[in-house]
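Posting for a labmate who doesn't have an account.
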Amino acid sequence: MEIFQLLKQDHKKVSTLLKHLADTSEDAKVTRKKNLQALENELEVHAQVEERLLYPKLREYDETKDEAEHGIEEHGEMRQALHELIELEVDDPDWMDQLMELKDTIEHHVEEEEEELFPKARKLLGGERAEEMADRAEEEKASIQRSMQ
């Protein structure tokens, strides 16, 4: 498996969690809290893996340097939108609007990565390096998850 496949799997997990959250009502406090915590963990692990492994490597190439920087900026926007959502009570009338703002931010980021950045990066890195990076990413994810417990 290449790192891009691994990161796309993360994107799908996040998308599923966002859908579960969007399908809740103000009465589903426990479900919202549980899924919001899972979303926060998944996003943070994913972002850290990209920031520690993928983006530094892509900064080395003229073709992807700006996009890697942009990805880091978008992670900041995502973290800010997530923080604002977490600060709201899950039954706050504005909660769903804030969730949709976070969802839009994430979907924009994912689309840019999957349609623009990953194909360029795949060509630059090659399959063997991308596979090695996936192995490192798995180790990094496990380490990050342990440190979050």
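Reply:
Got it, the structure tokens are right above this. The longest helix spans residues 95-148.
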